[in-house]
Amino acid sequence: MKTILHPAESRGTANFGWLQARYSFSFANYYNPDRLQFGKLRVLNDDQIDPAMGFGKHPHKNTEIVTIPHSGALKHQDSTGSSGIIKSGDIQVISAGTGVEQREVNTSTTEAVSLFQIWILPENEGVAPRYNQKKIAPLLQKNGCSTMVKLKQTKENKLWTQEQAYFSLGTFSEKTKTSYSLHNKTYGVYVFVIDGTILVDNETLNKRDAIEEIWDTDSIDVTASKNSRVLRIEIPMN
């Protein structure tokens, strides 16, 4: 097994006035040849959008887009006719497939909205565009991790992608040790600290730090400190 630590301050930065962003991987004007992607995980942007501002109409194609707000609310509209407002406690999943145009705007005129926008490279290209969102706050385990975005579509599972990806969120009010078993030992796991402090493979990670766990591992143990939140993404590495 190989692990690579990515301190929060090592991320790329951008300030567009209305948008302050931190980039975990090369994006826009930020380029780092050592940070192109992690397997099929291509983008993990940590965005803060000013009141009443947002992204104007723009295209996407053959990309799985997962949006996780952690404060404020964002209004979404796209060329398929889909629309919705996502806020903290929700997750939105879009399969851009054959192509979709969308716009996203902060619903508030007084408060910023903060969110993670994540792009996955799909296993299946050229699919019909699809939009889904779900309120997942009631489903989160106390002092545990809950898998919210999975591979397979079912009646109960509206949040899925065109790739063998698994997104889990952990919320911890007390110090807790958890163990995660991978679906395939050739996959990798990207662990990102939203808030607090965790211990992974003898590495201490603080707010917005991340660690890559790759190469022939069956499971990962994480010890989360009190008042911590963690995002975990399991993804194919090729």
Please explain how this structure is put together.
Belongs to the pirin family. The protein is mainly β and 238 residues long. Helix content is 0%, strand content 54%. It is built from no helices and 21 strands. It has a seven-stranded antiparallel β-sheet with strand order 2-3-4-11-6-9-12, with no helix packed on it. It is globular and about 45 Å long. The model has no long low-confidence stretch (mean pLDDT 92).
Give, in order, the helices and strands.
EEEEEEEEEEEEEEEEEEEEE
Structural class: mainly beta
Number of strands: 21
CATH topology, what is it called?
Answer: Jelly Rolls
Assigned CATH architecture = Sandwich
Q: Quick one: overall form? A: globular
**What is the CATH domain class?**
Mainly Beta
Number of domains: 1
Give the mean pLDDT. 92
Taking the alpha carbons of the first and last residues, their distance comes to 16 Å
- CATH superfamily caption: Jelly Rolls
Organism: Marixanthomonas spongiae
InterPro entries: Pirin (IPR012093), Pirin_N_dom (IPR003829), Quercetinase_C (IPR041602), RmlC-like_jellyroll (IPR014710), RmlC_Cupin_sf (IPR011051)
Domain Quercetin 2,3-dioxygenase C-terminal cupin: 153-234
Domain Pirin N-terminal: 13-120
Give the gist of this structure:
The chain is mainly β and 238 residues long.
Write the layout of secondary structure elements.
Layout: E1 2-6, E2 12-15, E3 19-23, E4 41-49, E5 54-60, E6 64-71, E7 73-78, E8 83-87, E9 90-95, E10 100-106, E11 113-120, E12 130-135, E13 144-149, E14 166-172, E15 176-181, E16 188-195, E17 198-200, E18 203-205, E19 210-214, E20 219-224, E21 228-235
Antiparallel strand pairs: 1-19, 2-3, 3-4, 4-11, 5-10, 6-9, 6-11, 7-8, 7-10, 9-12, 13-14, 14-21, 15-20, 16-19, 16-21, 17-18, 17-20
